[in-house]
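hi support,

uploading two proteins for the ticket. first:
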Amino acid sequence: MRYAKSMFYVSNAKDVAEFFTAAFGLKAQVYGEGYAEVATGDTKLAFGTLEAAGNHLPGQPLAAAEADRITGVLSFVADDVDAAFQQAVTAGAETLREPADREWGQRAAFVRTPGGLVLELGNFA
């Protein structure tokens, strides 16, 4: 068995996937506005609308990412945290925490994507 992907529910899967392409150059595969995937190496990030998710999990209580709550963080390794942060903001991300050095030796920043997902961009030294 191997890990394949993580799926997140968002209001517009196409817009979120296109953000990852614009910000970080990750290849997106868009299957309409209801479902999209972004390649991140051996695994993928998948994004689906609640309507698309309902086709997979009918009758289950589902919720999409929301701008007023943080329900999780996706961490990305960046060789240049400041440049990755600027690319994300230029592509439309909201700044949650500008790049800063942490006392344990890591440099990290936090942004919220247009679809409401929170990303940590860090060097994880």
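and the second one:
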Amino acid sequence: MSQDAALIIDVGTGSTRVAVVSDEGRLLSIKGRKNTYHLDERYKDAKYFLPEELKENIFQLIHEVMKETKEVAIKYVSSSAARESFVLIDADGQDYYGLPNIDNRGKEWLEVIPNREYIEKYTGRPLTEDFGAMKLYGLKQKRAEMFQTIGHIVSISDWIGYIFTGSIEMEYSQASETQLFNIYTKNWDQKLCDAFGIDAAILPPVIKTGTRHELTQEVKERFNLDQKGLYVVGGADTQLAAQGIALKEDEIGLISGTSSPVVKYQEHIPDFEKNKEFNFWCSCNLAGDGYQVETNPGVTGLNLQQILDSLVKDVSYQKINQYIERNYHNLKLLASFTTQSPYKNIAFSNGGFLMDVPFSQEIIFEDFIHGIVADIAFSIAFKIRQNEVLSQTTASFIVGAGGGLRMETLCQMIADLTEKKLVLKENYDEASIIGAARVCFSADSTMKEGTVIHEYEPSNNDYLREKLERWLMYREQINSKKEIGAF
């Protein structure tokens, strides 16, 4: 008798993966490809993707993993996808344009949006260009014909559901990323729509993670899927990653990838008036059950990947990790590229490297990468402390997930700076995929919690804390708007 398995499609910022996961939680096969983005030259900083291109990649990856897992029976199909990323569908059901999380086309109009305090309170997040509403507002300003074509907007994970079932809907955790969704009423909000000039009719019904749908006959035949196979509604990758590491209500989770959100489950929304100076997000959790409070340092892992791609494409993580380990207490320069202020509800616009002058001949390219890794660790440590204050939690350890934690020295820095043990469980680096599979098999009760495979114990590290203090001053100085003198 063949083993039951789930086919999981996971669309991240940098790449798309498709995996087959057994009903016991074993990763049987996984394949991936880099995502393709295009620039829209009408804007200062606008990127888009073509749904048809992404769909073709997904289909090819499905064929690849299915060839490797012919002995299993695909009982479920589900999806996980990056937050703040959306697909536009026209009135005829054609998916014609994609707005990824790295699209910032709405930024130049932030100051004209009314009712800012209402928006931030009832959506649980600061008004920024990151979320769906400002992407749509920016689209309307310079791509009016494309904006007027919108019949529906869905998240990428819900778009995958549309491909496999024909249902147009949006899951709670993804709806929270539009900034058109009221996290108190857990529904679309007309006042929010009015603030951005968006017709509420384009917003689909909100659906719970775990809802099951019939697969279309076309999909079953294309991929030779079982006639009894079902599509299970997935959700946002961060929430699913927390599910994948079986995060408990009294624990703090770190989901480190392109960015590094620090998350904590909460039954209630934090008091907005008391905490609005914090840079925090509060989202509906999967299926709308409770809330997830998040503090986020902004872009982290993407910085590391980009400097590696730019400077040292052929150098492995292992080699970089070994260099940092040998020079753990010899940080020759500081970097500032994580995007969020440690203290305030603002994004930094300036970054760079700080080093002693004159330029030292001892500095090599690994030192620049060492600085980037330390920048990530410093930012994460601050956000862990903030989340503890915000959620009124004092956790004795942190549960980690995400590919960003594959670098051992980064993990050790986080443990040292927070003075907390960092725990990694089996498949921590594929946690969103495991989380989606866990949702699929939740009714079957066959998946067990992953075993702990790494524990990073904190050590008393005054050296790193001293560097952190200098890093803080540097970040504030290069982003200060005070005049320092005339030439």
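thanks. also noticed: DSSP finds 16 helices and 24 strands in the chain.
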